[in-house]
Each structure stands twice: as structure tokens, then as C-alpha cells.
């Protein structure tokens, strides 16, 4: 039997729509799940993306990628590479597994939302592939993290993180819920593929893979790269969606992009920033987090906004200013609250590392040096107990990161303060004006208590350090500690800390 040429059947195969005769269109595509808003239904017929893959092609390519990733994994396992990996890199890998594994699964839920409720058949087809992609990424993360559990139980947080109330999990779970798992199809396409994947993960995973390679973790680098080719394809769902929404409701499109950008930028300042500026061994650092974001996000992403007729977000200046401070405030906070993390934070403030930080961030010594010096002094005097917090961090009601993590001490341009508001007789506090505004406009987070609010409300089984640790799912073996057991303090015992010497 003669076979049809691909061109003769492809569009029928991927873009066939039903005409409903027994139910209303609204019953099939309810507004809260599809989110078409004021776009005329017929306009979605123009939804188009460039990849145009068929199922047999998809399966063949994915099979190749899968066998490639697992082949490298087993070769690396035989080489016994784990014993030679730097503790700082292992921490970067643990953050990745803890924050990303569950997020890949939630991205799968977002893709499923589009696979069922998106407003054009071509889009729904594309989302089916996207959903299969995200399930594959979840599985890759789970398997790759699992390999190390027998040597280091913190790697179990790849599986466990989102099933706990750990501080970091609560913050990232809230953000990912709002981008991926909760919204209707149109909002998912703009928040997840357009803003989060195209703007953030697709570029930063390239940096992460190169850091992994430099650290000798070929297996991890290969796992990330295997997923990124999928992301590049399914992220294309964002462009046609925003093009159509811009024609009918540019204000809504702009809002979706802006708020997602802000939440992603807050999250990345600790999840990626601390890896790039503090955990990566200094010899392997190619760019600072700020340089990386300036090159890829500030210039490339801003160009993309322009292409689609979008403006720069209203908080652009706050975001750009934050490139100097957020990461350092987060890294300091993470190290200080190290017991509450499921990795071993590297302080990253040896003299050589501080020199690097000042080269990249000229105000670093002025802003963060004195606080680190106080910590160093306590450690050098054998008073390690003074370097642990006595209280919980005060958390932002929107991004759930510590208030102060969007600021810098000793700098009037970024004061350490909260931005409060009162709603229905209750006070809420925010790390920044944009977090306050996003919370107010959407009120999505109205009933989402921070860990501190749960402790105060008596929902955490007590307010002692031990009770809060248990509430966060942190048993003794999981609790974080200094990556090098304070060996880096030795050089300061001979010569006093930087700001004291000055
Ligand atoms: Mn993915
Ligand atoms: Mn994705």
C-alpha cells in the first residue's frame, strides 16, 4: 500500500478539532481551567509552533536520549567519581535535586492542564509531548539522586523535599504551584514555558551543566543536558499563546509575565546564585551569578519581551539593583540557618574567595564583610554555638523567603526592613515592594501561612528548635552543617578578619 507523504497528513494529524453537538464549548473548556478570557475562540485556530513533531519521531528521539543518559551514569558509577567530588558541588547538586525533582513533576501537571484544556488541538498535542518530557525529567532526577543515598542520606531529599514542610520546600513549592499546577492553560503557557523556562531554567541549566562538568560530575551534566533539549521544544508553547493574548488583552499578558519573572528571580537568587557565587570551587567559576544574569537574562530576555510587544516589568530597576545584593543576603542566610537545610552550605568567604567576590561585586565588603567577620571571630575563638540563630527567620508572605534576603546590610539603597500591609485586620509583611504588590493584586497567597506563622499558630508541635526541625522533616542525619567543617577559618586565626584589619 502506498504511504501518504508526511506533508499530506501532518496537519490533519496534529490539528483536528471537534465541533461539539451534545455539550456547550464552555463545559468542555471551562474558563478557570482553560483561561481563554476575552480572546474570541476562533482566534486560537491560529496557534502554531515550529517543532511539529510526530509521535513516532518523538519516541525514537527520546529513546536515544534516555539510553545516552543512563549509559553515562553507569560508566561514571564504575569510575567511583563520588569520592572525588567537592563538597561544595555536592551541595549544589542536592539543592538541584531537592528543588527541581518535585518541580519537574509539577511541570508535568501544568503540561497535562494544557494537554486537556488548551484551546487549540495543535497546542494540546504539543502539551502531551511536554507532559511525557516532564515525567521523564522527574524520573531522571529521582534515579540520579537515588544512586548516592547509601553514602549521603541528604540525597534522599530529591524524593522527599516536597513531602515536607522544610523552609526551602515551602517557598519553592508555593512558587511552582502558582506557575504550574494551579492556573488555567493560558496562564500556564505564559508563566511556565514563556517566562520560567525560556527566561530562567533553559539558560541557567546550561550554566549548571557546565559547573557539573567542571566539578567532574559528568553524569549530572549529561542528565541536565538530556532534559534541556526537551525544554527547548516544549517551551515553544509560550510564544504563540502570548502572541494571541497580546492582541486581545495585553494588560493581562504583561501582568502574568511580570509577576512570574519576579517570583522566579527571587527563587533563583538563592537556588542558583549561591551555587554560582559560593559553592562552585573558585577555580571552576567562569562567571558570577550577576554576570551570567546580565548576559543572558537582562539582555536576551529583555529583547524577547520587546519582540512580543511587552514592556520591561515595572520593578525592573529593583531587580537590576538586586543583582548586587540578593544572592549574598541569601547565601549568608542559608549558611546561618545551615541546620535547616538538606545540604552542607559552603561559607565561601576565605580570603581568596572574598577577593573574587569583591572583583565581581565591588560593594561586597562594605555590605556583607562585617557580618561575616563577626561569624569568623566567633569561630576562631572556638564559639561555634554563637554562629547559630536563636530565632526563626522572618518570612515574606509572598515569596516565603526571609525578609532581608532582598536587602543588604550597611547600604541605605537596600535597607533591611519589611514592607507591610494590613488586610481584613491582619498584618502581612513582605521582603520588597513588588512582593507586596503581587500578593495584593492576586491574593493567591492569602491563606498560605509561612512556617513562622504556623509555629505561632501552634500548628508546628511546639516552638523549640527541636520541634521546628521535626516539623520541617529534618532528622539529625539530614540537618545541614558547614561544608568543610570550618577548616576555612584557620587562615583567619593568624591574621585578623578583613574589616578588623582595615
Ligand atoms: Mn523539565
Ligand atoms: Mn519544561
Structural commentary:
The mean pLDDT is 92. A two-stranded antiparallel ribbon has the order 1-2. The protein has helices at 6-14, 25-28, 31-34, 55-79, 87-117, 121-146, 157-160, 167-181, 185-214, 218-234, 238-248, 250-271, 273-279, 289-307, 316-322, 326-336, 351-360, 364-380, 433-442, 451-456, 465-471, 490-494, 498-501, and strands spanning 419-423, 426-430. It contains 23 helices and two strands. Helix 5 packs antiparallel against helix 9 (185-214) and helix 8 (167-181) packs antiparallel against helix 12. Helices cover 60% and strands 2% of the residues. One manganese (II) ion binds at residues 104, 107, 134, 137, 227, 231.
Distance between the termini: 86 Å
Strand order of the largest sheet: 1-2
DSSP strand content: under 5%
Which hetero ligands occur in this complex? Answer: manganese (II) ion
Oligomer: single chain
What is the C-alpha radius of gyration, as a whole number of Å?
Answer: 24 Å
Largest sheet: 2 strands, antiparallel
Helix content: 55-70%
Coarse shape: globular
| Topology as a string of helices (H) and strands (E) | HHHHHHHHHHHHHHHHHHEEHHHHH
Low-confidence segments: none
- Helix count, DSSP H or I runs of 4 or more residues: 23
How many β strands by DSSP?
2
Could you report the average pLDDT, rounded to the nearest whole number?
92
Report the structural category: mainly alpha
Layout: helices, strands, pairs:
Elements: H1 6-14, H2 25-28, H3 31-34, H4 55-79, H5 87-117, H6 121-146, H7 157-160, H8 167-181, H9 185-214, H10 218-234, H11 238-248, H12 250-271, H13 273-279, H14 289-307, H15 316-322, H16 326-336, H17 351-360, H18 364-380, E1 419-423, E2 426-430, H19 433-442, H20 451-456, H21 465-471, H22 490-494, H23 498-501
Antiparallel strand pairs: 1-2
The protein binds manganese (II) ion (MN) (2 copies).
